[in-house]
Amino acid sequence: MGKPTTVVFDVGNVLLRWDPRHLYRRIFDDEEQMEWFLGNVCTPDWNLEQDRGRDWDEAVALLVKDHPTHEPKIRAFHERWDETVSGVFEDHVVLLQRLREAGVPNYCITNFSSPKFALSQERYPFLSGFDGIVVSGDERLLKPDPAIYRLLLDRYGLEAEDCVFIDDSKANVEGARKVGMHAIHCVEPIDLAAELRGYGFPV
User: Are 143 and 175 in contact (CB under 8 A)?
Assistant: First the structure.
């Protein structure tokens, strides 16, 4: 594989600091109870279905039916979703801006609910500046399904070997590599600038 020319970003926990605990620490006084709730009621698997395109009202109704005593806390995941994002990875956003200023093509593949991604674009305008975006909730495909990576490549006329993909999930990184992309597993305390310079990018 030659040197890539294009950078493809994930969003959650690469550019945005996302964790439902940012919200639920404001709701629960007890950390153990919060962890039980997030492990048994508003679970990662439940949330992932919204990333796959399930309607939020439907998702909330399903949980309220099974856990009626937790209804206000369940509804908070939807109604106060913006509080699950505590901010951005400032250094990574700076890198993204440097890539754009240098004319480096930049794209995004993200597992994200469609309406929540639109909300995030309003709050964080840099999310609207990509040369192309694939949102799982729009496509009803989730990383690491090879189809979602190929969708980006086909839609925007990209070659896999020309792209380096950045994601915090090891499974998603491996998924990108399986379709022929370079990939960086982005978990703190990574020096993402050094990783990108290693591929020859001007950051």
Answer: yes
**Is the Cβ–Cβ distance between 91 and 192 less than 8 Å?**
yes
pLDDT by residue, tens only, the chain of 203 residues: 678 999 999 999 999 999 999 999 999 999 999 999 999 999 999 999 999 999 999 999 999 999 999 999 999 999 999 999 999 999 999 999 999 999 999 999 999 999 999 999 999 999 999 999 999 999 999 999 999 999 999 999 999 999 999 999 999 999 999 999 999 999 989 999 999 999 999 99
Contact present, 88 and 124 (Cβ < 8 Å): yes
What global pTM score does this model have?
Answer: 0.95
- 129: number of Cβ within 10 Å: 13
Is residue 189 reached through a cis peptide bond, with omega within 30 degrees of 0 on the bond before it?
A: yes
Tell me the backbone φ, ψ of residue 161, rounded to 5 degrees: -70, -15
Does residue 144 have a cis bond before it (omega within 30 degrees)? yes
Is 6-17+87-198 assigned to CATH 2.60.120.580? no
Instruction: State the number of CA atoms in the 13 A half-sphere of 134 facing the CB.
Output: 24
Domain ranges of the chain: 6-17+87-198, 19-84
12 secondary structure, DSSP code? B
